[in-house]
Amino acid sequence: MSLLLNGKPVASKIKAYLKEQFQALETPAKMRLIQVKGDPASDFYVQNIIRNGKKLGAVVELIELSEDATTEELLKIIHDANDDPSVHGIMVQEPLPKHIDVLKVNSTIDPYKDVDSLNPVNLGHIMLGINSLTPATPTAVYATLRYYQIPTQGEHIVIVGRSAVVGKPLASMLLWKTPHTDASVTVLHSRSKQLKELARQADILVSAVGRAGFITEDMIGENTVVIDVGINEQKDADGKVTFVGDVDFNACVGKALAITPVPGGIGTVTTAIMFLNLLRAMKGIQKDNKTIDDFLTFIFVGNYDE
Ligand SMILES: NC(=O)c1ccc[n+]([C@@H]2O[C@H](COP(=O)([O-])OP(=O)(O)OC[C@H]3O[C@@H](n4cnc5c(N)ncnc54)[C@H](OP(=O)(O)O)[C@@H]3O)[C@@H](O)[C@H]2O)c1
Q: Which helix (H) or strand (E) holds 213?
């Protein structure tokens, strides 16, 4: 039976630290969360962020815009949040309606308040290994690997999916020359030839495709660590909605060395990371000068120099 890499203990550890930190602050940490209405699944994620903020002792201010809001309206709200010193973190909930210029939106968020690290400046920092806020989902993968002490140095990590929110920044992070990264990384996508053969060569296989059952049992070996980033909505015959990952979990759970469940895996850790980014933003990345690795070492191991 595979080792189950549950997200809950990882998230709990990070949240316990955050709770202590947020409660010790004289001025509360504040995140401005901006949502353009129209995507029902986003309502769930937004409410989840607000609920977590309350539990952790951080303020989440929600600004809702109607579905027909323009890029300019959105940019004005981001500029206001950038200029407001009481706002430490900014997040624009995606997906945005098709008429919105997402690149313009992400580029307008102050990189030092960018809690999901979508500004191209932050993505560039990540690629170059410069200390910055790091994107929530790739960092959740990184934190999960660290928590379960899965070695990455010199290991072959295959990522299926090359989006700007998951695949590409995760590949950049795993290439950092640090003890908990330093991997050999292969990134696959819809045009990749011999995808199954390449996936089978992975020591760690990460799937961020967005298709239920995409990773089948014949794509993994007995020594593969399987990280499932996918969150896919499925309706049963009665119309009841459930969420599943990209991995055929039932077929792979008996074979892989270790595997993350969905739900209860990477998604669970992602929200905790977003609030860790809020704390990092509040402390000031330049002033504080601690990396995400330093924070995770402190949270998981108890000191800054492991
Ligand atoms: N756990 C979390 O916190 C979290 C956060 C964000 C996203 N997600 C989930 O992760 C999944 C991916 O999200 P995303 O935003 O990265 O999605 P995305 O932007 O749609 O990207 C999907 C990637 O998968 C590739 N792909 C699609 N079909 C493929 C195929 N048949 N063979 C090989 N590659 C294929 C695409 O290739 P091309 O580039 O060639 O099109 C693309 O690179 C979704 O299920 C999403 O809900 C989870």
A: none
